[in-house]
Amino acid sequence: MKISTLSLGAATLALALSGCGEGSPAAGGAAEASGIDFGTNASMYANDGECDDVRFEGSAMPGADERNTDHIGQDAADCIAAFDAGTITLNPLFEEPASTDAIVYGDDAGNYPNDGDCDDIRFTGDYASNLFYMHEDIGHDASDCRAAVESGEARWQGATATPEYGITLEEAEAMEN
Length: 177
What we know:
Strand order of the largest sheet: 1-2
Helix content: 10-25%
Strand content: 5-15%
Number of strands: 4
Structural class: alpha+beta
Shape: globular
Order of helices and strands: HHEHEEHEH
Number of helices: 5
Distance between the termini: 50 Å
Largest sheet: 2 strands, antiparallel
């Protein structure tokens, strides 16, 4: 980008730089029309040709053993490109429900069902800061999450590109040692 003026005000400089760095890339085509917030490119795996955001599913995703909830909303360019190419779609479990009555909770086939904690990243509450969210538990802790939502302890956050995370993978591994 060529800028022909020597004197740039803060607003002009911010506008000139808005397309640079790790900010939100512009969505186009199907991605733009979808209304999905793809987020930013803050992930260490951004721009590697794979969509690492577990809100999506399809052939442009890494293998199941490589998926991590820490990348939600942090691999926008790859996810936009894959979405526009038709190689990923939004996982229906992350579609914004019309009301709490319309939430698809899933089943209890996760790692920690019926333990009193909602372990699904699509939900958050005061309890969330103590949990490690695993992608395998998305849609697989239905009874705990339904109870938490019904009691007011949890709320839906599935459609956001900036979820409230619990502890990170590194923190969980450090706690085990």
